[in-house]
Design goal:
It is built from 9 helices and 31 strands. By secondary structure, the chain is α+β, with helices and mostly antiparallel strands. The chain is elongated, with a radius of gyration of 64 Å.
Length: 557
C-alpha cells in the first residue's frame, strides 16, 4: 500500500464523484472528470451561478461540472446562514430577498444553527431527534456543541473533510488496481474480474468460464429430471406431470386438481407427485374408469335393526309402529314407552303397561272390566249380572267397582212403594205415608214421603268447580188459596261441609240441586238427609225426606 501526504482541503460533496465514476466508462481518456468538477467549483465560488455555459464538448463532463457547482453553492449558502446565526442571532437575509434559492439555503442553515444554540442554552441534549433532515441535524449538533470559536463548518459533516488522493491528476495506483481513499491516506486494491451468473473465475483468476450446473452430483432440475447445460445457464426437461418453474429454476409438480377443477374427478381430487388420484365421498365407490363415483346400496348389508331405505349416497333406517330410531347410532330401533309419554297418563283410564312395540291397558282386579276400545274401564253391574250375595230381604245397589246390600224398612205409618225401582232412574226405595183410621197425629204429620237412594261417585282428580250430583224435583200440592214456597235443606250427614243444596227453576219446575263443593278422595261413604219443605203462610204444610247414600270410589272412572 502506498500513502501520500494530504495536500489540500476537499469538501465532502466531491465524494459524489464516486457515484459518477460509472459515467466515465464512455469518456475519452484525455477527459478527466476531476478537472470538470474543479471547473464547477470555481464557477460556484467566483461566479455564484451554475447556469452559465460550460466550455466543453463532453456531455458527461458538463454533468459533473453542474453537479459540483450546485454542491459548492449549497455549501457556501449554508456557511452564510451559520455565520448569520453566530453573529446576529437572527436569520434576516442580507438583501431582504426571501424568495430566491440562495435565501432558502441561507435561512434553513441559520434556523438549524439557532435551534442548536438554543438547545445548548437550555441545557438540552445536542443529539437531535427531530425529523428535520440530515443536513439540518448536522448543523444543529455542531452549533449546539460549540463552546468556543471553531473552525469552518461545511454542509456535509461540518468538520475539516480529508484530502482525496484518488482524485489527483497523477493516479497514485498502478494499472489494474483501484484507488480507495481512506482517512489521511489511500489504498490500492487489485481489480478482480466480476463474473456474471453462470460463470466463475478460472484457476488462474484471469477470466470467467462457464459453470456446468448439470455436473453430478448436482440435480438442479430435481431428482429424475434431465438437466441440459448451456453457456452461462442450463435448461430442464421435466417428466410428465411436472413443469419448469422459472423462479426456482426447477421441475415442479403440476397440481392437476387446481389447474382443472371439477373436470378430472367426479367427487374428490387428490394431487400426487406427477399425477393425481380420484376418490369418492362416503356412500359412493369409485367406478371402473377411476374417475366417476357410483352409489353404494348400504341396505344390502342390513345396517338397520328393522327397516332400511337406500338413498343416493347414503341410507335411511326407519322403524315399525311402536318403535323409534335411536338418537345415539341412528340405526337401532328402540321400543316407544307409550306409557311414559306426556300423554301416557291419558292413554289408559286406569293403568298402562308397556310391551315391545305397543302397550296394554289394565283395570282394577275386581269390579271392572276392560272396555271394547281396550283403554277404558267399565264398571261391572253385579246387581244386574246376579253375581252379588245380597239376601232376599236386602236390596242390591250397584256402585262403581262393586255393590252394596242394603235393607231399608219403612217406619210406622208408612208403606213401601212397589213401583219405585221401575219408575226412577236411580236406585231408590220410597216409603209413602199411610195412616191408620182416626190417627190424627199421623194425618197432621207434614212428612209425606221418606226415600232411600244410592249415588256412586268417582274421585275427581282435578276438582276445580262444584260437581252437581243429585236433582230433586218438587211437585207443588194444590193449594188454591196461595202458592207454596219450597225450601231445600241438608239436615244430617254433611261431613266437612262437603256438599250443599241450591234451588233452581227448570222447565217450569222447582229443582233442588245437591252439589259436591269440596274434593273427596275415596273410598268414602256418607248418608245425606235431605228435606223438601212446602211452606204456605209461614207454616210447613208438606215435607219429603230423602236419605242419600253416597259412595265415593277410590278410582277416577
Amino acid at each position: 500500500m502506498e500513502r501520500a501526504a494530504p495536500s489540500r482541503r476537499v469538501p465532502l460533496p466531491l465524494l459524489l464523484l464516486g457515484g459518477l465514476a460509472l459515467l466515465a466508462a464512455g469518456v475519452d481518456a484525455d477527459v478527466l472528470l476531476e478537472a470538470c468538477c474543479a471547473d464547477g467549483h470555481r464557477m460556484a465560488t467566483h461566479q455564484k451561478d451554475c447556469s452559465l455555459p460550460y466550455a466543453t464538448e463532453s456531455k458527461e463532463c458538463r454533468m459533473v461540472q453542474e453537479q459540483c457547482c450546485h454542491s459548492q453553492l449549497e455549501e457556501l449558502h449554508c456557511a452564510t446562514g451559520i455565520s448569520l446565526a453566530n453573529e446576529q442571532d437572527r436569520c434576516a437575509t442580507p438583501h431582504g430577498d426571501n424568495a430566491s434559492l440562495e435565501a432558502t439555503f441561507v435561512k434553513r442553515c441559520c434556523h438549524c444553527c439557532l435551534l442548536g444554540r438554543a438547545a445548548q442554552a437550555q441545557g438540552q441534549s445536542c443529539e437531535y431527534s427531530l425529523m428535520v433532515g440530515y443536513q439540518c441535524g448536522q448543523v444543529f449538533q455542531a452549533c449546539c456543541v460549540k463552546s468556543q470559536e471553531t473552525g469552518d463548518l461545511d454542509v456535509g459533516g461540518l468538520q475539516e473533510t480529508d484530502i482525496n488522493e484518488c482524485l489527483s491528476i497523477s493516479a497514485p495506483c498502478p494499472i489494474g488496481h483501484t484507488c480507495i481513499n481512506t482517512e489521511g491516506s489511500y489504498t490500492c486494491q487489485k481489480n478482480v474480474p466480476n463474473c456474471g451468473r453462470g460463470y466463475h473465475l478460472n484457476e488462474e483468476g484471469t477470466r470467467c468460464v462457464d459453470v456446468d450446473e448439470c455436473a453430478p452430483p448436482a440435480e438442479p432440475c430435481g431428482k429424475g429430471h434431465r438437466c441440459v447445460n448451456s453457456p452461462g445457464s442450463f435448461r430442464c426437461e421435466c417428466k410428465t406431470g411436472y413443469y419448469f418453474d422459472g423462479i426456482s429454476r426447477m421441475c415442479v409438480d403440476v397440481n392437476e386438481c387446481q389447474r382443472y377443477p371439477g373436470r378430472l374427478c367426479g367427487h374428490k381430487c387428490e394431487n400426487t407427485l406427477g399425477s393425481y388420484l380420484c376418490s369418492c365421498s362416503v356412500g359412493f365407490r369409485l367406478s371402473v374408469d377411476g374417475r366417476s363415483c357410483e352409489d353404494i346400496n348400504e341396505c344390502s348389508s342390513s345396517p338397520c335393526s328393522q327397516e332400511c331405505a337406500n338413498v343416493y349416497g347414503s341410507y335411511q333406517c326407519y322403524c315399525r309402529r311402536g318403535y323409534q330410531l335411536s338418537d345415539v347410532d341412528g340405526v337401532t330401533c328402540e321400543d316407544i314407552d307409550e306409557c311414559a309419554l306426556p300423554t301416557g297418563g291419558h292413554i289408559c283410564s286406569y293403568r298402562c303397561i308397556n310391551i315391545p312395540g305397543s302397550f296394554q291397558c289394565s283395570c282394577p282386579s275386581s269390579g271392572y272390566r276392560l272396555a271394547p276400545n281396550g283403554r277404558n274401564c267399565q264398571d261391572i253391574d253385579e246387581c244386574v249380572t246376579g253375581i252379588h250375595n245380597c239376601s232376599i230381604n236386602e236390596t242390591c245397589f250397584n256402585i262403581q267397582g262393586g255393590f252394596r246390600c242394603l235393607a231399608f224398612e219403612c217406619p210406622e205409618n208408612y208403606r213401601r212403594s212397589a213401583a219405585t225401582l221401575q219408575q226412577e232412574k236411580t236406585d231408590t226405595v220410597r216409603c209413602i205415608k199411610s195412616c191408620r183410621p182416626n190417627d190424627v197425629t199421623c194425618v197432621f204429620d207434614p212428612v209425606h214421603t221418606i226415600s232411600h237412594t244410592v249415588i256412586s261417585l268417582p274421585t275427581f282428580r282435578e276438582f276445580t268447580r262444584p260437581e252437581e250430583i243429585i236433582f230433586l224435583r218438587a211437585i207443588t200440592p194444590p193449594h188454591p188459596a196461595s202458592q207454596a214456597n219450597i225450601i231445600f235443606d241438608i239436615t244430617e250427614g254433611n261431613l266437612r261441609d262437603s256438599f250443599d243444596i241450591i234451588k233452581r227453576y227448570m222447565d217450569g219446575m222447582t229443582v233442588g240441586v245437591v252439589r259436591q263443593v269440596r274434593p273427596i278422595v275415596g273410598p268414602f261413604h256418607a248418608v245425606l238427609k235431605l228435606e223438601m219443605n212446602y211452606v204456605v203462610g209461614g207454616v210447613v204444610s208438606h215435607r219429603n225426606v230423602v236419605n242419600v247414600h253416597i259412595f265415593v270410589s277410590e278410582y277416577w272412572f
